[in-house]
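Listing S7. Sequence submitted for prediction.
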Amino acid sequence: MIVAENLSKSYGGHRAIDSVSFRIGAGEIVGLLGLNGAGKSTILKILGSFLMPSAGRALVGGYSVDENPEAIRRLIGYLPDVPPLYDEMTVDAYLRYVAKLKNVAHGDVAKRVDFVVGKTNLKRVVKYQLGDLSHGFRQRVGIAQALVHNPKVIILDEPINGLDPVQIVEMRDLITSLRGQHTVVLSSHILSEITRTCDRVLVVDHGRLVAEGSEASLQATMTQTMRLTCELDRLPEGLIATLQKLPGVAKVQRITGQGGERLLLDTDADVRSQVAKLVVDTGVGLLGLSRSEAGLEGVFMKLIKPAEERAHG
């Protein structure tokens, strides 16, 4: 359904995305995961034919963003990071207006509006002016306008940004309900929501695609990524620096306020015996040492390089 081949976009001397390639099948829910400024929105805007690539090509439903942008716009529903709402209109009037703009047949407008109002749980605010809605309801209206013409492809840019925990769960349920009927591409910097919502993840860092796959497959490609939890009765001076020097240890994090001291080590190798010896040699009490897979967070932190590290190669 979606093909990107060596996709690049430059703004003057700045390259926002660089040689990005991927494929997304019909009915999949795929997430773009990356830090703010990684290039996620640029990719989505190109797929939606709102930006043209500087190099490479992108196809949506067999249409090229360069050659057939209008055909692609008819094929997709798009929610930008800020929903395109008119505050003086009511929810009902706005969705009817959008349906007509998107060439929904006159006799089907009311039916399609009723459907998306129910799908996005907007019935109790359907007569409210958009300017009077909370942020969560505005996001729902944004998705409703993206769905109103029953598009094959739905593109959502940070759909859960700024939502409270209850609204996040509701938005997650809404997005997953689209699986199979629509191809959904969404962006987020929130790890937990990407794994709960998406079939696959495309990890973007500084404009490049650095990994792709399910959480399980990403972990499988980096099987040595793990997290060690070390519990101590107190933290001796210099221990963190010493642990950081162990082969394979990428990061040591101190967690306080839970009784005693807790250190989290992200590592490529099983260094439990070395950690235990180092702790015991300091004379402090070792209260616990356990291993767990780092999950997508550990993989993500390993894949994403700080800007200063990338700048030095």
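Caption to Listing S7: primary sequence and predicted structure tokens for the chain studied. The two ends are 35 Å apart (CA to CA). Residues 4 and 58 are 4 Å apart (CA to CA).
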